[in-house]
Amino acid sequence: MTMKKYRHQIISISVILLFGLILFYIGTDGFTAFTEETARTNKLMKEQPQVPEVVLEDSTGREFSFSELNGKYVFMTFFYTSCSTVCPQLEMNVKEVYDQVPEDYLGEDIVFLSVSFDPERDTPEVLDRYRKYFETDADNWRMARVNDRVELDTLMDNLGVIAIPDGDGDFAHNVAFYLINPDGYLTDVMDFEEIDFATDKVLKVLEG
Amino acid sequence: MKQAIYGLILLAFLALPPARELAESIMSIHMHMQMPLIAVSGFLLTPFLQKTFPNFFAKWNEKGLPGFVLVLVVILYWMIPKAMDDALVSGFVEFMKFLSWWLMGVALRDSWGKASHFMKNALVFTIGIIYIIMAGVYIFVDDQLCNNYLLVDQRTLGWGFLLIALCIILYFVQALFINPEDYEEASEN
C-alpha cells in the first residue's frame, strides 16, 4: 500500500517535473538554444531577413548603397577599428576565407564587406589604414561605415548585431560571419572561428 | 503575521522599476542577490500561507520532497544564460522570474520543516555541485554567454558561484567535526 500512501507526493512531483520540462522547452526554444546568441542565430537563419537599404562610405570615401551590391554574394562582418580583442581576430579570419576564394570570383560574384559600428572614429582614413594591415583590395573587400545613425541601427537590428558601449570607448558585441545572397537576403550566420566551414560554404555557393 | 508583511514589503520593493533596473544592471547582483531575495520574500510569507491553506501543503508536500524538486527546477532553469537575457527584454519572463523564485522560497521553507536530515543534506549538496559546475562555465568560457552583460561581469558571476560553493563545502566539512547538539542547552530535560 506504499503507492497509495505516496500518491499525492508522486502526483505533485510529476506536476513539478512536467512544469519544469515545459519551462525548459519554452525557455531554450525546444532545447536548441541555451544562450541568447544561439537563439538569435537560429532565428536569423530561419527568417532570412532582407538587408535594409543603407548608405555606406568605404575606405576610399566612396558612398554606395547596399542595393548596389545586389547580384553578388556579400560576405559581411561587423567590427570597429579601435577594438583590440576580438575584431582583429575576426578580420584575420575573414582574411583567411578571402585568400581562399579564387580571384575570378572576387568582386564579380562575391564582395567582402566589413561594416564599422563606430562611425565617429572610423573615418575613411582610419578604415583605409586598417585595410592596409590586411593587404587587401579596396574594391573586393570593402571596409565601410554607415554615417546615418538610424540606418546603422536598423541594419544592426535586422541582422541581430548587438554592440553595447562599455563607457571606455569599447563595445561589448557579438561576432559572426554573415552571408548575404545576390538578392540581398541573409542566408547564413556562421561561427567566425570555423574558417574552413565558412570557406566551404562560400565556395559551394559560388560554384553552385 | 509580521513576517508576512515584511515579505510583502520586500517583494514590493524588489518589484519597483528603479530597484529592478539597478539590480539587473549588474550580472552578479541580478543572479546572486535579486533572485535569492525574491525567494526570501516567499520564505517570509510561508507561515502565513501555511496557516491559510494548511490542507494544501499537508496533502501535496507531505514529506517535503516535491518542494525540494521545485527548488532544484527553479535554480537549474535560472542557470541558463538565455533565461537571464530573456528576463531583461521580456516583461513576461521577468514576471515568471519573480513568480518562480517566490514559489521556490515558499517551497523551500515548507519542505525544510518536513524533510529528513538526509534530504536536506542531499539538496544542499546538489546545489553545491551545480554551483561548482556553473562557476567553471562562467569563469572559463571565453565566449560572451549573455548578450546583455560583459565578459568581465560573467567572470565575476563565476567567482560568486565558486564562493557560494566553497561555503557549502565548508558547511559539510564543519558538519564532520562539529555536533550542533553539543552547543544546545539541555532545556528539554
Mean pLDDT of chain A: 91
What count of helical segments of chain A does DSSP give?
A: 7
Work out the radius of gyration of chain A.
22 Å
> What is the multimeric organization of the chains shown?
heterodimer
Low-pLDDT windows of residues of chain A: none
Give the overall shape of chain A, derived from the CA principal axes: elongated
Using only C-alpha atoms, the radius of gyration of chain B works out to 18 Å
Task: Describe the largest sheet of chain A.
Answer: 7 strands, mixed
Tell me the fraction of residues in β-strands of chain A, as a range.
15-25%
Instruction: Give the number of helices of chain B.
Output: 9
Q: Tell me the helix content of chain A.
A: 40-55%
Q: What structural class is derived from the secondary structure elements of chain A?
A: alpha+beta
Unreliable spans of chain B are none
Secondary structure class of chain B reads: mainly alpha
Order of helices and strands of chain A: HHHEEEHEHEHEEEEH
Net shape of chain B: globular
Strand content of chain B: under 5%
Q: Can you count the beta strands of chain B? A: 0
Task: Compute the separation of the termini of chain A in Å.
Answer: 69 Å
- Which two chains have the most extensive interface, and how many residues on each? A-B, 26 and 28 residues
How far do the termini of chain B sit from each other? 31 Å
